[in-house]
Amino acid sequence: MSVELPLYKDLNKSLTDVLTEDYAFDKQFTLKVKTKTSNGLEYVAGGNITHSKAVVGNLQTKYKHGLSGLSLDVKGATDGKQTLEVKLADKVPRTTFIVGATQAPGKAAFEGSVGVEYKHDLARVKATVDLANGPTISTSLVSGRSGVLVGADASYNTEKGQLTNYNGALGYNFGDNVFLLQTKTVGDKMAGQLSASYFHLVNKGLRVGGDFGYTLHNNAKIFTLGTQYSLDPTSVVKAKVDSEGKVCVHFQNKINSGVTFGLSTQLDATNFSNDSTKLGFSLTFEN
Fold it and tell me: Which of 115, 96, 92, 120 minimizes the C-alpha distance to 4?
């Protein structure tokens, strides 16, 4: 079975989706509306109320022109963060060119970047130049064959003349089973954590996985274990527990073809006081 090589940042996507996707306990209420026009223009409008009673709204617009290979992704939020990404794919075989701009909250100027991705059967490469900070050159490489993956990721600040990030990974991906050993940056500690993770698609309705880490500078041992189970074609339950004693549960139900309801909670098993428990609701509408 052949598996398409991912970008370095997506090496562990199957597990990350199980452990983080859909959980909404960090917000009291989240609303999302998705719509798509007949010419392929997509809108995603949403908002949330945080536990501190702050209200944040956001809007995303996406467009992809199939014949030209041009795609556009624009995001804006009421907290002041704005992003723009333009991609041009396959004008050069297997290659995508990327131009991006970001406006951080509280800043008037946009920060720009340019990049290129190259995809081959045996390798996936991405290089990005952050024009505002340095400039900083970031590169990543994933190479693989017969399910065995080797990856590396590094950033170099040309102004400072030094590496600002570097990590590596070794793994096995055969679609329904993913094993990964990698280093992770912790704070300002590059390759400061050793991580071992596992993902298993047991069957169509059940997914399980875990991530285990060892932080080098303080000898801390951390882990997160999680699972996702489809009760029926419209309902999903997810659960996870971590080394800090946090227990999280998420229930999601597709009420009809256009409405999805979600309920998430986080409990601190080391402290059952009311202040430590978080509960969040979500509603998603789409056509």
Answer: 120
Residue among 198, 213, 204, 212 nearest 233 (CA):
204
At 2, the pLDDT band (50, 70, 90 cuts) reads low
Residues 6+ apart with CB under 8 A from 220: 214
Cα distance between the two ends of the chain: 35
pLDDT band at 66 (very low <50, low <70, confident <90, very high): confident
Quote the DSSP letter at residue 40.
S
User: pTM of this prediction?
Assistant: 0.90
DSSP per position, 79-118: TS-EEEEEEEESSSTTEEEEEEEEE-TT-SS-EEEEEEEE
The Cα–Cα gap between 55 and 200 comes to: 38
Mean pLDDT, rounded, for 258-274: 90
| CA proximity to 262, closest of 230, 229, 236 | 236
Cα dihedral 68, 87, 287, 83 sign: negative
Distance CA 207, CA 18 (A): 7
DSSP 128-190: EEESSSS-EEEEEEEEEETTEEEEEEEEEETTTTEEEEEEEEEEEE-SSEEEEEEEEEETTEE
User: pLDDT for 194-203, tens place per residue?
Assistant: 999 999 999 9
What is the pLDDT confidence band of residue 214, given thresholds at 50, 70 and 90?
very high
Which are the contacts of 222, defined by CB distance < 8 A and separation ≥ 6? 212, 213, 214, 215, 242, 243, 244
Question: Residue 76 CA to chain centroid, in angstroms?
Answer: 18
